[in-house]
Amino acid sequence: MYKLLKPIFFQFDPEKIHYFVTGTLQNAQRMWVIPKLIQSTFKFEHKSLEREVFGLKFKNPVGLAAGFDKNGEYIEELANFGFGFIEVGTVTPLPQPGNDKPRMFRLPQDEALINRMGFNNKGVDVLAKKLESVKRDGLIIGGNIGKNKNTPNEEAVNDYIKCFDRLFDVVDYFVVNVSSPNTPGLRELQEKEPLKNILNTLQIRNLKHSISKPILLKIAPDLTNSQLDDIVEIITETKIAGVIATNTTISREGLASGESQKKEMGGLSGKPLTKRSTEVIKYLADKSGKSFPIIGVGGIHNAKDAQEKLDAGAALVQIYTGFVYEGPGLVKEILKGLVKK
Fold this sequence. Notes:
Layout: H1 2-9, H2 14-28, H3 33-42, E1 51-53, E2 56-58, E3 62-64, H4 75-79, E4 85-91, E5 104-107, E6 112-115, H5 124-132, E7 140-145, H6 156-167, E8 173-177, H7 192-207, E9 215-219, H8 225-238, E10 242-245, H9 259-262, E11 267-270, H10 274-288, E12 294-297, H11 303-312, E13 316-319, H12 321-326, H13 330-340
EC number: 1.3.5.2
GO biological process, one term: 'de novo' pyrimidine nucleobase biosynthetic process
Keywords: Cell membrane, Flavoprotein, FMN, Membrane, Oxidoreductase, Pyrimidine biosynthesis
């Protein structure tokens, strides 16, 4: 069915069709029979798929990456497609509109997307209230947190604190996003000292609670090996739970798409990122001796892509662009492929 609909969807602006499809999905699932039909079609469960990672129990290792449901508006509907976990956000303390439109672009020849959304979201208070009412049924929910565009980098830690405190009781794990290329200056926070300051500050607040929450760091695929060495050192020193590798890339190397598409500013995701994200996973796993869990994301379009990331050292994987290009059946395809392996 999705193969028939995709050519129609791809005739429209990517951002507009995203909200049309998710809104339609939400409205349709208000009819009691639709959620059951979707579950029976797309869900796949097997005991061997269960995972325990950073102290949390996952029904399966395939999650939905941050950015797809920034405001936590479609969690229950998306969960019916069989995800083991869903990451919401990136969320900021205050609502912000993001960058000017258009800000998302398809590269069909490369099965890729370029986005420069700019952390558009309704703010952490709206997200927290939404999550309070979500029916989880064993679903793990992660909160991806960032800083507002107008917050200077020297004050960025305060934005992460605000999001952390507000979401603490409604998410299962946190992701510190300092790697998006679409907020000016944000990637500067990946440098050693500012990053250590943010992570140490959050860990201090974390440990004040009777039960702490796993904190992960989402990193860019564009880091050098020397910078990745620093990441391993920082994680070891701050004792955060792990890493998400990787965010989108600013590289345009090897693309088949035309110059007009390639020149769009923003982060590139999808198949062109498959190899590099897997390389980063393997480097981190080898360098650290697998001393911390890694969530692998970037260019997963089939079961083979997912297995390669797990073989490289990832404990879990996430999809986004593959979900757009391959459709909702991708989750089941990956899970069945992992069981066969």
